Structures are given as C-alpha cells and as structure tokens.
Amino acid sequence: MHRFVRALSVAAAAPLLASAVTPAAPAGAAPQAPTPAPRHCLAEFTTTDRAGTLTTVFHDDRRFGTFPLKGTKVSPAPRFVEPMNYEPSAMTVPSMVVTRTGILQSQKHTVVESDGDTPVWRTQAPKRIGHGWASVRDIAIPDDLTAPYFFAVTGDRLNRYTLRVTRAGDVGVRTAPHAATAGFSGVRSLTWTRDTVASGVRADVLLGLRGGELVEYVVPRKTNPRVTTRVLARSGWGGVGTIDAGLCFTDGRDTAVPTATTPILGRVGRDVRLYVDRDNTDGSGRDIANHGRIGTWPPA
Questions:
Q1: Does the pLDDT value for residue 209 go beyond 60?
Q2: Among 175, 252, 264, 284, which one is most buried in terms of CB atoms within 10 A?
Q3: Where is the signal peptide (predicted)?
C-alpha cells in the first residue's frame, strides 16, 4: 500500500544490492545489456516481523530498506495487514487486519512516547469487523485515496469492497458490487497499479500472477463491469510467490507526478526481487526488466 511508505524517511535505508538487468519475459530471450534501475521509483509491502511489529519493506530510489513502527504488535502473525492514512505527524493509525482464521479486524496503533526522533507506538486490542476471509488468496488496495474500491481474489471470483476510516478512527469495510464471478481461480497474487479510462469509464488496472503468467486486468468502476484480461508474460513468473506494484515519479520533489513506469517487488522464498515495467500502457511485458535480488524478508 504505497500511501504508507511515501511518507517515510529513507535516509537510513541500505543501498541497493543488485542493479544488473536481465529480461523477465519472454522466456528464452537473449539477455539485455545491464542497465541501472530507474530513479525516483517506490514500491513496498507491509507485514509483521517475528515479534509482531508492523513493518514496511520497501524499495525507494534504488535503495532497499525496512521501516518498523516501534512498539506496535499484531499477533499472531496475520495473513494480511494494511495501515491506513499514515503520516509522520499522525498520533493514531488504524490497520485493517485479516487473521489466519479469516477474521477481519480493525486495530489501532497510538503514539505513547518518543525515542529521540522516533515515535513509540502502543497497539490496542483488535476490533472484529467481519469474517469469512479465510479463502481470500490476496488483496489489492489502490494507492489513490480517491479510488472507490479495493479488491480480493477468492475462489474463482474477484470481489470489490469499500474501505474507509470511521469517525471513531476504526477501519470500515463494506461489500461492493462484484468485479467478476469467474476467471480468477488460478490467480495467487494480485496488486493494484494505476487507474485508467476504459470505454469512457474510470477503471482500475491490476496485475496478477496466474501459474507462470503475469496478467493485467482492467476493471471499470461500474456495476457488473466487463473485466479485460491481457497476458503480459506467458512464462517466467511461476517461481514468484507474490507481487506488489509501486510508482515511479518525474523527479524527487513534492510536486512530482507519476510516470508510465511501474516498479514491481516479487518475492521468491525469502528473496525480494525488483522488476520494472518501463511502459505500463503498451499492453506488453517484453519491456519488463528483472533487476534481480535487492534484499531479503524476513531477515535471517
């Protein structure tokens, strides 16, 4: 969820561990000349460490690092956890948590003191807000705060939900009109990349892993949408367990705007790898470059 890590300081992040480029697709293609990863790109995923500390693992401007919220504790280890509306000055941050047993929870984290410039948080007891999420294989939450839906892939379906923070500061989730009732049984990982216009309607663009394929889905923001499917790469992604897409920007200033380049973090075992789609509008995966291993999670 990119809105979280965009607010973080990366001054202490470790340097990028690999920058040579080999093609991610198509399989068997001749190696490309090594080139560095692009500047001003950000991708991340949020999880918990072995102690239950809420931690964001990120790649930012050619650097790999982790950002723990000191003092938080989400335990036992959840299937999914997403902090909402984080800002450096925030005193309370709620998280959406999906437990291993499929319970949907809202859990608040509140600043109680400071350790120098680092806030120390305390996690409150979780509040149950739903159930029946045990069959969800992955969720995809937009970076755009104005986007109306987030997505969950379960069984053969692609479901949509609304997500908000209530007046009481809790996470609120409601079921929205479904996106697709068939065609998603083989999708193991899903991530939101951008919005677009499809047939005159705003639409969300998702990337999914389906067997060895990397697949793009365009989902119009309307009732009973016709989901457009495009295979970007037919092989080469079978060993990647999950993907999390991010954003690249025109420069490093606060006024920078997103470009058509998409960084993607792929997890292969404990390895975190960086892939870059140089043009996310061309409908092809031939320009997706594999920058190799940039770090590991969880640490040894």
A1: yes
A2: 264
A3: 1-24
Q: How far apart are the first and last CA of the chain?
A: 25
Tens of pLDDT, residues 56-85: 999 999 999 999 999 999 999 999 999 987
pTM: 0.89
Helix (H) or strand (E) holding 205: strand 201-210
Say which residue the tokens 């969880």 belong to: 298
* Residues sharing a CB contact under 8 Å with residue 89, sequence separation 6 or more, in sequence order: none
DSSP string, 15-82: EPS----EE-SSTTPPPPPP-PPPSSEEEEEEEE-TT--EEEEEEETTEEEEEE-TT----SPPSEEE
Distance, C-alpha 8 to centroid of its chain = 16
pLDDT for 235-289, tens place per residue? 999 999 999 999 999 999 999 999 999 999 999 999 999 999 999 999 999 999 9
Q: Distance between CA atoms of 44 and 150, rounded to whole angstroms?
A: 17
